[in-house]
Amino acid sequence: xxxxxxxxxxxxxAAEFESLKWLDEGKHPLDWNGSTRRIFSKFRDEDLDRxxxxxxxxxxxxxxxxxxxxxxxxxxxxxxxxxxxxxxAEMIAAETKPGDLIGIALPACSMAPVAILACLxxxxxxxxxxxxxxxxxxxxxxxxxxxxxxLQGEGVVETTARxxxxxxxxxxxxxxxxPTEFGVDQPACVVYTSGSTGRPKGVxxxxxxxxxxxxxxxxxxxxxxxxxxxxxASLSTIVGVRDTITALLAGASIHLLDPQHVGAREIVNVLRxxxxxxxxxxxxxxxxxxxxxxxxxGDTLRLVRVGGDTTLWxxxxxxxxxxxxESAIQLxxxxxxxxxxxxxxxxxxxxxxxxxxxxxxxxxxxxxLIDEYGHDARPGEVGELIVESPYVSLGLxxxxxxxxxxxxxxxxxxxxxxTGDLVRQRPDGLLERMGRKDRQVKIRGTRVDLxxxxxxxxxxxxxxxxxxxxxxxxADRSVTLVAYVCARNGAPSGLLDDLKELMRxxxxxxxxxxxxxxxxxxxxxxxxxxxxxxxxxxxxxVQSERASVAAAAAAGPAxxxxxxxxxxxxxxxVLNTPVCGPQDDFFDxxxxxxxxxxxxxxxxxALDRELAxxxxxxxxxxxxxxxxxxxxxxxxxxxxxxxxxxEGLPPVFFIHGLGxxxxxxxxxxxxxxxxGAVIGIQARGLAGKESPLPSVEAMAAEYLREVKERQPDGxxxxxxxxxxxxxxxxxxxxxxxxxxxxxxxxxxxxxxxPLRWPIRVWLSIVRRRLVQFASDVMAARFQSWPAAIGKxxxxxxxxxxxxxxxxxxxxxxARYRPGFYPGELTLFSPVGRExxxxxxxxxxRNHARTLSVVETAGTHSTMLSAPNAEFTAACxxxxxxxx
Length: 883
Fold this sequence. Notes:
Blueprint (H helix, E strand, L loop, with lengths): L3 H4 L2 H8 L34 H11 L4 E4 L4 E3 H18 L6 E4 L5 H11 L4 E3 L6 H11 L3 E4 L9 E4 L21 E7 L7 E6 H15 L6 E4 L6 H12 L3 E3 L3 H15 L4 E4 L1 H8 L12 E5 L5 H10 L5 E8 L2 E7 L15 E2 L4 E5 L12 E7 L5 E4 L2 E3 L3 E2 L6 E11 L5 E6 L3 E4 L2 E4 H9 L4 E10 L6 E9 L7 H10 L9 E4 L13 H25 L6 H14 L17 H15 L7 H4 L3 H9 L9 E5 L7 E4 L10 H4 L8 E4 L14 H15 L5 E6 L1 H15 L4 E7 L10 H21 L5 H9 L6 H16 L5 E10 L9 H5 L3 E9 L12 H9 L6
Parallel strand pairs: 1-10, 3-4, 3-5, 4-7, 5-6, 9-10, 9-11, 11-12, 12-13, 26-27, 29-30, 29-31, 31-32, 32-33, 33-34
Antiparallel strand pairs: 1-2, 7-8, 8-18, 13-14, 14-15, 16-17, 17-21, 18-19, 20-21, 21-22, 23-24, 25-26, 28-30
């Protein structure tokens, strides 16, 4: 839960959300598409005002001999359960005072519901500690929770609190005993959640909060006394507490087992032997169960409830094949802090997204979506999900006390909760979860949702689970996408290669730079990814790979392998990821134009020879690059560089920017769907031995000779980025004068010479760049500054040629006086164009017969790079021939 400190002062924050546009709720009844003909006792609104223990007492007296709880060794009837609850509640009340927190450290056994209900009967809040907590996590929870009393079984939890051991069912309370008065809006249950990357936090819910979840479960699934529950969730989670109380207040029975101890096969055996009717499971655990389930689930399982993690349509397909045709699948979407939505899955609502919608808004809650600026997200747009409800949690349990951290709205009984989930609403009212704000990362400038990466990997039929991380280099702050997968029924050979090919079908930024196969993805008891454990594992893998590379370098290259070993070592240093195979692509592994410069410079130093800078663009795959090195590709000036292969249509010639190289064009051109080739034109002088061409006219003349040799006849398609737009314009003007046909002149944010700009423009740009530089420096850890500076200093000679070409180009642009082009100029103008500069139309309107303006994404410096490259590529492709 986000704290008030994160949102600003409580009153100001509440005012900020007063004008939110709430999503429509109650479009479908709770049991829509579910078991609508089943007879049950409806949980009414007025039932939320009665304590849980009062509801349970009524059920126990109505069904005294019916089985309430079973485990592998024990079964308790409702009357036996009530007797044990009353006796333990009497002991708890005698040992503690109102407001004291009671800790429950029991395995998933019949004594756990006794302990939970006894705490409520004694009028004391409780916290359940999962026996699978690590020692460190357990100590953190105990340090923060500060329970006064611990209820334990035979196991030992180190604690300073008083301990009551539950090795058997407690004796009933004395005659005349009654439950302690306990308001339904007081703290009742503390659930420790998150903690994947830091300390756990205790979320406090009241009985009213719990009863609302119970009511919605009973009324949606029409749960009655004939049902038998099996919940594959730890009792330390809100799901485990909810399902235990739901089953007992509906008069149903619940079977308790520990899925981490019994395994998938025994879970299937329990389903059939206990004739379970309602099963709850997290997606990853259900996938494991289905791997051992056989053809059918049996004739009693009428409902599978799924929640807690991203669910895929492929999961639904597996469940449909396992369940009887009349069985239902209910998806539940909630947080420990608030219930939000659910639905019975309707397969006809399926779309191309592998992730299943999370449901319809539940009655009793107001839901809204806000964009990154705090405004209502427009229909169909993604926004952060906001919940306003009297059933939002009371706050956090901090150092033994409940501290409110939700925002009051519309009175003290209603609170606001910022979920951090990114959601959009479809036209049919269903909501789709697109990821989390805290799992959105930028990789090479592109925003990537890590949950989307995991969902894409899980589409492979042999992948059971996946986890993704973004790792930041301490030296240069570059970000590498790392993914881990575990396979179904072992690890077939070639799986990782298949997954790499699968991810190549998606956006480049979503392709993992490192991909590993492991036996199991680490998860918390709540089924959330244990990010800290995965980061620790990744650190071990990185250190191991670095040690292997260092050992190989120390041993010296084997005969015939020196090129591969050198390239692999530099590849690892620059991209922070090892070469895994001959088809590894430099740019798919995290390379960009700046890293390409660094990579080629380091390769030159390591091999002590001069190389063509464009070699990595022409041969980005590891094996092909090594082969090109063996062909002794020197830095001899070659103006034309193939950026994208093609045939059947005229090529597009793309002229370099101010720095002269074509690396900055590569991210955009490789995303073009145009069937013709794309040829980059790079400047003379990049290698440092040749002098740059002195003028725009000289460049146009030399480049035209090369273009004519490559394509003797028109139509010619010319583009130029920044300074290159001047050269493209001059080339087009000369082609027209000679009677050649020009199909396109694309000018990408080209102004006249920067040396002519007013001083106010320069000051504005410099100020903007300084602010960005300061932001980048502050984002880096202080300890990494010396290493980063040293790394840059060691590569100073890399941009010398670029600097020489750029200086010459600046002077050439100042001297150039463009004439008139008797055709159409297509001006590609980024939406984030420098505001102090005049519009492109005003710059070029006197130099061409007609102008066409195309608005692209990004700024001048980012319009050709990720995340804007794909959009800009599409804009350009629309102005090229299709056949």
